[in-house]
């Protein structure tokens, strides 16, 4: 069996390096949401590598790229417009009732 | 494998000797295993007609119950009736109605293709529909569901005592049927057009179905996964939609309406397509502002995704979100209005003939306009607080779905009947039915605007006695409507055997589908057509873009 | 069906084999767009959970099996690589290499499923399966249960996709061995590859969302 083509081999190596990086960084305490942002940023990088080189998206016809973009665009609609509610919704504190913390109900063994 | 070359094309008004109805054999097996888009369209037509009558029966019983303020059925039976009506009409009639019947039949013909891109997928889509239909019927027969078609949590996941999981499974499955159809249409429109059939030469019907398909493919999966979450929550008592378990019921509503509002456009966009075919033909004029009509469809398909939370104004979303969604909901009125203006401008100075398809189309334009304008009322935050969950909303969406989409469905059915069957329907009866439907519809649903404005809540089996007079109007209208819907069943059935032979183009219409024989041969065209002109060339000498 | 390395005739609705090939590939991309939204609904639910109960989700994340999860990521990334390599071999008409690489890809898929199954088994013994045997004493018990509810749904549905992918790849391997493909005709391999890469991309996002949550915490 002939050796794999170099671009594919390099992509694979880059994917594994990114995997090691994201795993390591996850254990480093960072301020605020930095851990998530970095982890998802690395995931985006990995996904782009797979899309571009394994799935050959960058060499694909415009139509194919449009189909790929459509899925992501509509996903963005779902998240962005839901956010208009979730980011601005206030949970009112009525009387002594605390905001839900998830601790009120002990599910027990079911 | 089967490249049977069809020979002997004849333009005489006799039935083509070789047509899709007989060419592949007439056995049941040849129909159930067919890959011909035209045969699959027939299979779909038969199935959705069945479900139309099931849903219609439930509607009849609902209107019967509401004749008296105290109601006739028990509250529990009433709940099951309106749920049955909603689920069947939305998912088993309206969503597949025009795309899966006329879309399936006509898109390949209109673009000059031999079939859809993926014929096996098309057949699979029908089988999914039928399987889902059986599941739904089974759920209905063993006791039904009382959640309403919206399956709101935590009622559906915790309290309801109906067969919710079965119904959810049925809707899940029918969703995949619609995804497969949408995928097929998108790919077909992009890849299977005949030489010379550029995008701006496509009939608006194809554009509308393309826009519909985009919604089907991108919204339906969200519904599928949401319903699955509800089913698991109901079965295992663990889930993210139940506040008692730490979940958020509004999350369900967001996910549900992310599909179900765009689904409203799945239900109406194909209707726009049908009307855009009928109006130019019976006004003998090119469609006014073709590109505007086309791009308003695409705009609706996209902007339709930006407005879903206007169903949730009083559900507890933030005021800011309410404002955003209210404003966005106004935006979507613009492309819808553009279409109405364009159809009316097409009529202007046209040579209008009032054949049955045109009567339906004119009815559509009027009723859709009322439905659309009242949509602006309920998009308004303050007014919506007053009419949420009242009959005002019920009347509003029935003007769109029934006054609009069902009129378009019947209009299209009459318009293309000669092409599909090779026979003409009896014109006089068809006009009578069209008029009955128009007047019956208005008598049924206009009183509901008044009832809703006065404060009558939807989904209750009883109501205060002062509302009775309007309810009696409404129920009386429903009887007229029922006769209107039953009539075509008889005279169209009659025409199958006794109707006059249609010939290939009884309306003298443009469009590739009229250039092949009626009924068309299995492979649609003896020779792949080459297109050289834009659509709707209804004048011998098209004048330069005037007016 | 076919015995010599010939290009099968296109199906009757297509004018040319090229049209058929490009249509199949485009069809798969449209299907993948559908899939994005299918997973998207669950991801929105996940995002809501994590934003609403950050501490509970962090604690739940520390219950996940980081070693198995990371090894599985390695396995799936590698399988994507061998799949891409297989398509390359098909492009150049190297039948033997194609068959072997497809077999390796399918094997890696099976390995992924095996490890996943072992992980599920461990979670069962640790009483982490919501609705069936969940038991947790933490103050965040409810959130942990919700997290695991989404975990099982996301990984379960992903697992179904992996299973379908393995099936498709196995069929391709058998067909490749029989010589069904050549440098002019290998669309089915290419389309299967697209699907497999997509399944890999889903996992690329699931990995940090499931396994790397709360690792930097106490």
Automatic annotation (TrEMBL), chain A:
Pfam families: COX4_pro. GO terms for cellular component: plasma membrane. The chain crosses the membrane at residues 36-54, 66-84. Its main location: membrane. Keywords: Cell membrane, Membrane, Transmembrane, Transmembrane helix. It is a multi-pass membrane protein. Signal peptide: none annotated. InterPro entries: Caa3_sub_IV, Cyt_c_oxidase_su4_prok. It is found in: Cell membrane. This is Cytochrome c oxidase subunit 4. It comes from Azospirillum oryzae.
Automatic annotation (TrEMBL), chain B:
It is an enzyme of class 7 (translocase). This is Cytochrome c oxidase subunit 1. It catalyses: 4 Fe(II)-[cytochrome c] + O2 + 8 H(+)(in) = 4 Fe(III)-[cytochrome c] + 2 H2O + 4 H(+)(out). It is found in: Cell membrane; Membrane. Its EC number is 7.1.1.9. Pfam families: COX1 (PF00115). GO terms for biological process: electron transport coupled proton transport; oxidative phosphorylation; respiratory electron transport chain. Keywords: Cell membrane, Copper, Electron transport, Heme, Iron, Membrane, Metal-binding, Respiratory chain, Translocase, Transmembrane, Transmembrane helix, Transport. The keyword Metal-binding applies. Cytochrome c oxidase is the component of the respiratory chain that catalyzes the reduction of oxygen to water. Subunits 1-3 form the functional core of the enzyme complex. CO I is the catalytic subunit of the enzyme. Electrons originating in cytochrome c are transferred via the copper A center of subunit 2 and heme A of subunit 1 to the bimetallic center formed by heme A3 and copper B. Residues 513-547 are annotated as: Disordered. The keyword Iron applies. Gene3D superfamilies: Cytochrome c oxidase-like, subunit I domain (1.20.210.10). One of its GO terms (cellular component) is plasma membrane. Belongs to the heme-copper respiratory oxidase family. It is a multi-pass membrane protein. The chain crosses the membrane at residues 41-62, 82-111, 123-143, 163-187, 207-231, 251-275, 287-311, 317-338, 359-383, 395-416, 428-450, 470-492. Pathway: Energy metabolism; oxidative phosphorylation.
Automatic annotation (TrEMBL), chain C:
Keywords: Membrane, Transmembrane, Transmembrane helix. One of its GO terms (cellular component) is plasma membrane. Its main location: membrane. The keyword DNA repair does not apply. GO terms for molecular function: cytochrome-c oxidase activity. Residues 26-215 form the Heme-copper oxidase subunit III family profile domain. It is found in: Cell membrane; Membrane. It is a multi-pass membrane protein. The chain crosses the membrane at residues 26-46, 66-85, 97-115, 148-174, 194-214. One of its GO terms (biological process) is aerobic electron transport chain. InterPro entries: Cyt_c/ubiquinol_Oxase_su3, Cyt_c_oxidase-like_su3, Cyt_c_oxidase_su3-like_sf, Cyt_c_oxidase_su3_a-hlx. Belongs to the cytochrome c oxidase subunit 3 family. This is Cytochrome c oxidase subunit 3. It comes from Azospirillum oryzae.
């Amino acid at each position: 069996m002939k050796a794999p083509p170099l671009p594919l081999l390099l992509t694979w190596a880059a994917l594994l390096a990114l995997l090691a990086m994201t795993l390591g960084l996850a254990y480093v305490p960072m301020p605020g949401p930095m851990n998530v942002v970095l982890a998802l940023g690395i995931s985006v990088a990995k996904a782009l590598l797979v899309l571009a080189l394994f799935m050959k998206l960058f060499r694909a016809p415009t139509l194919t790229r449009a189909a790929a973009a459509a899925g992501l665009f509509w996903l963005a609609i779902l998240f962005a417009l839901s956010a208009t509610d979730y980011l601005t919704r206030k949970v009112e504190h009525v009387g002594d009732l605390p905001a839900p913390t998830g601790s009120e109900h002990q599910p027990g063994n079911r | 494998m089967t490249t049977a070359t069809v020979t002997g094309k004849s333009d005489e008004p006799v039935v083509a000797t070789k047509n899709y109805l007989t060419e592949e054999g007439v056995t049941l097996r040849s129909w159930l295993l067919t890959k011909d888009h035209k045969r699959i369209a027939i299979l779909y037509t038969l199935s959705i007609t069945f479900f139309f009558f099931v849903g219609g029966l439930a509607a009849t019983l609902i209107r019967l119950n509401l004749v008296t303020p105290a109601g006739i059925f028990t509250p529990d039976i009433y709940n099951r009736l309106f749920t049955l009506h909603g689920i069947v009409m939305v998912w088993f009639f309206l969503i597949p109605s025009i795309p899966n019947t006329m879309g399936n039949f006509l898109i390949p013909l209109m673009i000059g293709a031999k079939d859809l891109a993926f014929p096996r997928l098309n057949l699979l889509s029908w089988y999914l529909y039928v399987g889902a239909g059986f599941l739904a019927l089974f759920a209905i027969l063993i006791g039904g569901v009382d959640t309403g078609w919206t399956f709101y949590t935590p009622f559906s996941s915790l309290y309801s005592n109906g067969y919710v999981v079965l119904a959810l499974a049925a809707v899940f499955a029918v969703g995949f049927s619609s995804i497969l159809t949408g995928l097929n249409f998108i790919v077909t429109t992009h890849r299977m057009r005949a030489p010379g059939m550029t995008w701006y030469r496509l009939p608006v019907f194809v554009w509308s179905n393309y826009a519909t398909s985009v919604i089907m493919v991108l919204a339906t999966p969200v519904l599928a996964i949401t319903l699955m979450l509800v089913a698991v929550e109901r079965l295992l008592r663990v889930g993210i939609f139940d506040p008692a378990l730490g979940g958020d019921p509004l999350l369900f509503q967001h996910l549900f309406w992310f599909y179900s509002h765009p689904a409203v456009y799945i239900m109406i966009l194909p209707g726009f397509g049908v009307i855009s075919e009928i109006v130019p033909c019976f006004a003998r004029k090119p469609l006014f502002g073709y590109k505007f009509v086309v791009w308003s469809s695409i705009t609706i398909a996209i902007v339709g995704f930006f407005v879903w939370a206007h169903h949730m104004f009083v559900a507890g979303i933030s005021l800011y979100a309410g404002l955003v969604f209210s404003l966005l909901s106004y935006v979507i009125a613009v492309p819808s209005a553009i279409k109405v203006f364009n159809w009316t401008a097409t009529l202007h100075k046209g040579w209008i003939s009032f054949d049955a398809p045109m009567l339906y189309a004119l009815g559509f334009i009027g009723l859709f306009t009322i439905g659309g304008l009242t949509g602006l009322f309920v998009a308004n935050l303050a007014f919506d607080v007053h009419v949420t969950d009242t009959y005002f909303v019920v009347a509003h969406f029935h003007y769109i779905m029934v006054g609009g989409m069902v009129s378009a469905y019947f209009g299209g059915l009459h318009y293309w009947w000669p092409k599909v069957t090779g026979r003409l329907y009896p014109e006089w009866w068809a006009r009578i039915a069209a008029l009955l439907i128009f007047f019956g519809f208005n008598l049924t649903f206009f009183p509901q605007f008044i009832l809703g404005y006065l404060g009558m809540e939807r989904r209750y089996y009883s109501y205060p006695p002062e509302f009775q007079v309007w309810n009696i109007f409404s129920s009386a209208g429903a009887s007229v409507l029922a006769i209107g819907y039953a009539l075509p069943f008889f005279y169209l059935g009659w025409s199958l055997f006794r109707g006059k032979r249609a010939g290939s183009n009884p309306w003298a219409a443009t469009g590739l589908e009229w250039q092949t024989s009626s009924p068309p041969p299995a492979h649609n065209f003896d020779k792949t057509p080459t297109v050289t002109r834009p659509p709707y060339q209804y004048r011998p000498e098209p004048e330069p873009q005037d007016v | 069906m076919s015995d010599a390395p010939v290009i099968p005739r296109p199906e009757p609705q297509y004018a040319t084999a090229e049209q058929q090939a490009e249509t199949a590939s485009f069809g798969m991309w449209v299907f993948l767009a559908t899939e994005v939204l299918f997973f998207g609904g669950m991801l929105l639910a996940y995002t809501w959970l994590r934003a609403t109960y950050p501490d509970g989700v962090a604690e739940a994340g520390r219950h996940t099996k980081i070693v198995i999860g990371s090894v599985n990521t390695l396995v799936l990334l590698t399988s994507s690589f061998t799949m891409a390599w297989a398509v390359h071999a098909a492009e150049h008409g190297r039948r033997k290499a194609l068959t072997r690489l497809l077999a390796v890809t399918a094997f890696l898929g099976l390995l992924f499923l095996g490890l996943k199954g072992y992980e599920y088994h461990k979670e069962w013994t640790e009483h982490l399966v919501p609705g069936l045997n969940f038991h947790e004493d933490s103050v965040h018990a409810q959130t942990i249960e919700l997290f695991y509810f989404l975990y099982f749904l996301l990984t379960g549905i992903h697992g179904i996709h992996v299973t379908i992918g393995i099936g498709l790849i196995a069929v391709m391997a058998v067909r490749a061995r029989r010589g069904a493909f050549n440098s002019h005709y290998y669309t089915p391999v290419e389309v299967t590859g697209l699907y497999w890469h997509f399944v890999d991309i889903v996992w690329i996002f699931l990995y940090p969302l499931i396994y790397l949550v709360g690792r930097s915490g106490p």
